[in-house]
Sequence to fold (217 residues):
Amino acid sequence: MKHNALIFDLDGVLVDTAKYHYLAWKSLADTLNIPFTLQDNERLKGVSRRRSLEIILEIGGVAKSEAEQEALCAEKNELYLTYIRRMGAEEVFPGVREFLLDARERGYRIALGSASKNAPLILERLELTGLFDAIVDGNMVSRAKPDPEVFALGGKLLGAAPKACIVFEDSVAGIQAAHIAGMAAVGIGAPEALPEADLHLPGLDGVKIDAVERGLP
Ligand code: B16
Ligand code: MG
Fold:
């Protein structure tokens, strides 16, 4: 095997949490009389909570103080958590659990590299925690993708050199972050959406790690 460590983004790779982020942000935007659509929500994927709020305020042309923004972020997160607490293992994307189990059996070390501060809770709800050797979440990093911080820390916690790591990502900024970290990047989603990825997969259903290794340059 060419690599020995795998690092996974959470939202859009292992599970669809974007729909819950949308519902929570939509409720908040409604209270602020800001129009917020599913299309706007695309701009929030992989972006931090605080930056997401800034984008929504920009859409509405609304200004808020630092303290007000903190309070709005807390309010949004409470709403978001009402959805997350109801999540179950059936929401894991098809084939993800099998892919992780197969990779572990073959000796790969596995980390999460997510911008979400709620990532540990989400992995618990999905009953995936035990399949990860390390979890890097939004509480542990200060710089957002495309900064490589989240993946560099993931590799470090796994004791793996960048060249030994494969990142699985669904966002352009995440693919860039992986490359800046010196890691291979598998794009989950349409090839046109992630032109810089080293390999494209529509998802992990029916995929095995040895096929990923063969597909990477
Ligand atoms: P939280 P990822 C990201 O997850 C989401 O894509 C993004 O929409 C969200 O704003 C961010 O986490 C922060 O989430 O409010 O839970 O801290 O794709 O990096 O796994
Ligand atoms: Mg993502």
Notes: The longest strand covers residues 109-113. The mean pLDDT is 97. Residues 9-12, 21, 44-49, 52, 77, 114-118, 138 surround 1,6-di-O-phosphono-beta-D-glucopyranose (ligand 1) (CB under 6 Å). DSSP finds nine helices and six strands in the chain.
